[in-house]
Design goal:
With 423 residues, the protein is an alpha/beta fold. It folds into 3 domains: 29-107 and 127-228, Rossmann fold (3-Layer(aba) Sandwich); 233-358, Rossmann fold (3-Layer(aba) Sandwich), CATH 3.40.50.1980; 387-422, no CATH class. The chain has 16 helices and 14 strands. The radius of gyration is 25 Å and the shape is globular.
Length: 423
């Protein structure tokens, strides 16, 4: 990890780095896009045959296995994992479900003009595919984070894909009541969910995090089905003036161990704190090979000239995970996936058990949206209901607007209904 001063003689160098970081999403996915597109085209053209071949090559799929995980496998996994893990998964599931239920939008109607009622109805998507990474580590938490909000939304068909699913992931699937689970991963899994194969019917929307290949595949798939967001390699930013150096370093190291492409940033105007965090991070990362490599490659401490500058810089980066000192700091936060407040809110709690979703926007998508939510699995459908009186009141104004735009048939469609209402 390195310290870079934003002001003074290093200002130009710092600005160059910041611009590179701002372009991180599109730059990284572009590097793998040709390979990903070829994989997806192959699956689209050849279906199960190509999917199975790629699964053997890339996912460790065995010849004696079926693509689809059986209910018995999921139940057996649940029965064999330790009791304390079952308890933890159940607690996480309960908190995720409760949070999603609070997020669910209401249906409503209102009369904005006498005789004119408007409102919205809420309907679930008919199918979703939940991608659960399974490469370096088992991620049962991601299975819960993606499938439970879909259940709360009322989605009738929920499909899970995960390469080499570990017992912990299969156990989480059993707990969540998943009935359709395929042991495939990578761009080939995204292709199967988007285009469909002989075995797997296509879905309406694909959600879940993944590596650069999965992220690039989701972007390509978005041309024919919905996706939640580019949720690629993990990002962490801590913006602090008074935080605990050991705690800040621990969060940076923890997120850095996810992926060698992890982006780990500390932002401060406190030079003493910057040096303390640098020292702590080096110490804590020594025994963690992956975190050490990630921090060495991309870990950066930005030392700013003022506290206000730290706020501006943080919002420019729009990080996936953001830690701040106090609740008062929330007032200046404009761009972030999920925010953690104070010394006793490690980001790992959000990864597992708090309730808010850990599938979060990366690559500066935090400028546009927040994390995965129950609303990602719902459609808000607007409703308009006019009485004859309401049409007589607002119709002439609609006619005026249509006429101004030169859309004569629009104006006439209103006149016809108004005449019918006068009979």
């Amino acid at each position: 990890m390195k310290i870079i001063k934003i002001t003074g003689k290093n200002a130009k160098k710092a600005e160059t780095l910041l611009r590179e970081l701002e372009a991180r999403g599109t730059t990284k996915t572009a590097e793998v896009e040709p390979v990903v597109r070829k994989i997806m085209q192959t699956v689209q053209k050849h279906g199960d045959k190509s999917l199975t071949k790629l699964a053997h090559k890339l996912d460790g799929f065995q010849k004696n296995q079926t693509l689809r995980v059986t209910p018995e496998e999921m139940q057996a996994a649940w029965d064999t994992i330790p009791a304390d893990l079952r308890t933890a998964l159940q607690t996480a599931a309960d908190n995720i479900r409760h949070f999603a239920e609070q997020q669910k939008p209401d249906e409503w109607t209102t009369e904005n003009t006498p005789g004119v009622t408007v409102g919205q109805i809420v309907r679930p998507l008919d199918s979703v595919g939940c991608y659960v990474p399974g490469g370096r580590y088992p991620l049962p938490s991601t299975l819960l984070m993606t499938s439970i909000p879909a259940q709360v939304a009322g989605v009738p068909r929920i499909v899970v894909t995960s390469p080499k699913p570990a017992a912990e992931t299969l156990a989480a699937a059993y707990l969540a009541g998943i009935t359709e689970f395929y042991r495939i991963g990578g761009a080939q899994a995204i292709a199967a969910l988007a285009y469909g194969t002989e075995t797997i019917d296509p879905v309406t929307k694909i959600v879940g995090p993944g590596n650069l290949y999965v992220t690039a595949a989701k972007i390509i798939a978005s041309q024919i089905c919905g996706i939640d967001m580019p949720a690629g390699p993990t990002e962490i930013t801590v913006t602090s003036e008074t935080g605990d150096p050991a705690g800040i370093a621990a969060d940076l190291v923890a997120q850095a161990e996810h992926d060698p492409e992890t982006l780990a940033i500390f932002i401060t105007a406190n030079e003493e704190l910057a040096n303390q965090v640098l020292k702590e991070t080096k110490t804590q990362a020594k025994a963690n090979k992956l975190a050490h490599a990630s921090l060495k490659a991309r870990g950066t401490i930005f030392l700013c000239g003022s506290v206000e500058e730290t706020h501006t810089l943080t919002n420019r980066l729009a990080p996936e995970h953001l830690t701040v000192d106090t609740t008062e700091d929330l007032a200046w936060v404009a761009n972030a996936g999920s925010v953690f407040v104070g010394n006793y809110s490690p980001q790992s709690m959000g990864d597992y058990i708090s309730g808010p979703n850990h599938v979060l926007p990366t690559g500066r998508t935090g400028r546009i949206r927040g994390g995965l939510a129950v609303t990602d699995f719902l459609k808000i459908i607007t409703v308009q209901n006019y009485t004859a009186q309401g049409l007589q009141t607002l119709g002439p104004q609609a006619i005026a607007l249509a006429t101004a735009e030169g859309l004569t048939a629009h104006a006439e469609s209103v006149r016809v209904r108004m005449k019918a209402g006068n009979r």
